[in-house]
Amino acid sequence: MSDEELKREADAYVDEVWEDVVADIRTLVRIPSVRDREGAKPGMPWGKASHDALVAALGIASRLGLDAHECEGYIGYADLKGASDTQIATIAHTDVVPEGLGWTVDPFDVTRREGYLLGRGVLDDKGPLVLSLYAANFFRRKVEATGKPLPYTLRCLVGNEEECEMGDLKWYLKHYPEPAFCFTPDADFPLICGEKGVFHGHFTTGRLADEPGARIVSLDAGTVANAIPGQAEAVVRSGAGELKPREGVEVEEKGDGTFLVRAHGIGGHASLPAGTRNAIGMLADYLLDNGVCNEPERSFLSLEHLLCAASTDGSSLGIASADEKFGPLTCIGGTVRTVDGGFVQTMDARYPTSITDGQIEEVLSRLAAEHGCAFDVDGVKVPFYIDPSSAPIKMLLDTYAEYSGQPAEAQVIGGGTYARNFTCACAFGANDPTAKLPSWVGPEHGPDEGIAEDTLKQALRIYIVSIARLMRLKF
C-alpha cells in the first residue's frame, strides 16, 4: 500500500470511529483513577479506582479485537500478533492526578464544548490512550481483511501508575522483555527525545502550633507535588478587621477569632512554570506582609517565599543551573499540608546534566536548617536522552512534519514520561503546543483540563501512519 493510500484510509477510519473514540474516552474519564495506596490490595496495587480504569481500558482493547491481558493489577497490555515476536509498542496510562480546585465543569466526566473535550485525563493521558488502542484496531482490521500479519507484534501497554512513581512500568520491565521501540502519546508534538532529571523532596517543620504566639492554625494547598497550585488556603488567628483582602487574596472572618485567607493564582504543570503564579507563594507573602506569624512561622513563610514566589529557576534557593542540551533547571513548590501541629511543603525540581541530585539535596538540606526545617528526598529520576538522528526518531519527525506542514525537530522537556524507562523510546504527542486555546480550556494537571477534538483526530491519523512506517524499519 502506498503512503497516500494509507493516509486516505486513515482519514476515512478516523471519521468513521470518532464518536466511538469520544465515548470510550468518556468511559475512562468517569473513573476517578487517582492512585490510592491505602486502598491497595492483592491484584489492586494502586487502589480500586485505578484498577477499575485499567480493567475498563483493557475491556475497550478487547472489544476492538486486541488480545488484552492484565498483569496482576500492576499494568496491562493488548497485542496485535505479528509475523515476529519482536515488538513495536505504545504506552499510555489510565491513572490521573487528583482533580484539585477551580473546576467549572465536572472533572470526572467529558464535557464537549465548541470542539473541545474537557475533563480530568482527556489530555493526560486517557484521551491519548484511547487513540493508541484505536490505532491498533486500524491495523487489526487491515490484517483481518488481507490475511497478512504485521512484520512485528504491535503491543499497546496500558499503564496504571505513571503520575506517581511509574511503579507499574518498573514491575513490567522486571517480568517482560522490552519492546524494540516504544513511543508514549503523553507529551507534545513534534517529539520529545530528552527529559530532564526529576527531583522530589519535602520540607518539614516542627510543632509550630506549640510555639508562643502562634498565628497560623492551618495551611492547605495543591493536589500533587508535580503541579503548581492555583489555590491556597490558611486559617489564621487575627484581630477583627485586621486583615484586608487584596488582589488575588480573599479574607473571610470565621466568627471564632480566626480568618480564612484564600489566595488565587495560576496553576500548571511543574515542568512548565512559565505563565503560572503559585498560590502558596501568594499566600505566604500576604501573611508575611501583614505580620500574621510569630518568629518560627516567619522563618517558614520566608522559606515558602523563596520556593514558591521568588523564582522558578532555583536561583532563590541556590540551585540554578543550565546546560546546552536541557536548558535551565526549574523548581516549584507543589503542596503544603498541616501535619501534627507543623507544616509539610513538597517541592519538584527538573534538572539538567550540569547539576546532580546530590548537589540539589545538599543545598536544600542546608537551606532547610537555616529556616528551622528538615529536608527529605522523596524520589529521583536521572536525565534521559535518545539520539534524535536514529532511524525511528527521524521517521516519526518526518511523519509529523508531513501532517503539520511545519519543520519538525526533536525537543527536550522538563516533564517525565514513561520513555525514560526504556532503552529505545520517545514521547510523541498527542498535544499540539502551538494550538491557540480558548481561555476556558485548562492545562494538564489543572482545572478544566482540555484538548481540541481536531488535535486528537490529527494525532490518531499520525499514529496510524507512524506505526505503519515503523513496521517497515529493521529492528
Explain how this protein is built.
The protein is of the alpha+beta class. It has two domains: 3-196 and 384-470, Aminopeptidase (3-Layer(aba) Sandwich); 197-381, Alpha-Beta Plaits, CATH 3.30.70.360. 30% of the residues lie in helices and 27% in strands. It contains nine helices and 26 strands. The strands form eight sheets. A six-stranded mixed beta sheet has the order 1-2-6-3-7-24. The protein has a four-stranded antiparallel beta sheet with strand order 19-20-10-21, covered by helices on one side. A four-stranded antiparallel beta sheet has the order 11-13-15-14. A hairpin with a 2-residue loop joins strand 4 (111-113) and strand 5. Helix 1 crosses helix 3 and helix 1 packs across helix 9 (453-470).
In short:
This protein has 475 residues and is α+β, with helices and mostly antiparallel strands.
Question: Mind describing the biggest β-sheet?
Answer: 6 strands, mixed
Extended strand count: 26
- Terminal CA distance: 21 Å
The portion of residues forming beta strands comes to: 25-35%
Poorly predicted sequence stretches spanning 5 or more consecutive residues: none
Query: Which structural class fits the helix and strand makeup?
Result: alpha+beta
Q: How many alpha or pi helices?
A: 9
CATH class of the largest domain: Alpha Beta
CATH homologous group name of the largest domain? Zn peptidases
The gyration radius over C-alpha positions equals 24 Å
